[in-house]
Amino acid sequence: MRFVIVSGMSGAGKSTALKVLEDFGFFCVDNLPVALLPNFGEIASDRQTEVDKVAVGVDIRNGEQLSKLNSQLDTLCELGIEYEILFLDADDETLVKRYKETRRTHPLAKEDRIETGIAREREMISFIRDSADYIIDTTTLLTRELRQEVEKIFVGTESYGNFIITVLSFGFKYGIPSDADLVFDVRFLPNPYYEQALRPLTGNDRSIQEYVMKNGDGRRFLDKLEDLMQFLIPRYLDEGKNSLVIGIGCTGGKHRSVTITNGLYARLKKLPYTVRMEHRDIEKDARTKGK
């Protein structure tokens, strides 16, 4: 039996993750009292129940009883029930925004500011995060992307790493991405924009890729960039960072930045981490000129 405990910050997407797991055939129970975990585990592991995949939501709604989670998990182990912990997280600014959008009250901020409740919650559940098998930072994830991450862990055969790398192409004329940790300017590369036949195409097209990479600088840049990432990522991990957004920019975010982003993604996805790719501004020129 696969026994998954879903926990994390309120507003980080635990309910969504449980719904996704339910879609994948898990028997899901949300907000189970911590004291009932061993009993539930015994019932679920009984062959007569015919349940082979279980997911249980455990979070701050347990109140002070949450502090007893580790002892209940020890009891599960004594019963021979192996478990995995999935932890959903997001930065404070995103959590505050989500609460304000839904007009919900934070469980620990009945009469205080939302920020105060979030700070208390982080402190109270930090021990769960420290022992989690999988951590998903949903700060920049859409619902479909969260679904893909959960599927990757619990359904697919692809390996999953708690460190999430996003390689993001963008156009400088539309602004530098606010969540970018590293930004690289590739406007030094040959620009297909000035070739009339190439202008309508994007960095996803082979002819654009060949044009951008034609003088060899693109490939050399990718080699150096890959080497830099190999150096930086382990050091970010040592500092406790769980996500990295790499911005690759050109003028309009359509040709050069897309080409280099595709190339860097192809190289980084071989690493033992979760690697995502996004082309933020690839269609903006077309939309702007169509107005």
UniProtKB/TrEMBL annotation:
It holds the Pfam family RapZ-like_N. ATP binds at G8, M9, S10, G11, A12, G13, K14, S15. Residues 1-157 form the RapZ-like N-terminal domain. Gene3D superfamilies: P-loop containing nucleotide triphosphate hydrolases. It comes from the Bacteria. Residues 164-283 form the RapZ C-terminal domain. The keyword Transport does not apply. GTP binds at D59, I60, R61, N62. Keywords: ATP-binding, GTP-binding, Nucleotide-binding. InterPro entries: P-loop_NTPase, RapZ-like, RapZ-like_N, RapZ_C. This is RNase adapter RapZ. It comes from Anaerobutyricum soehngenii.
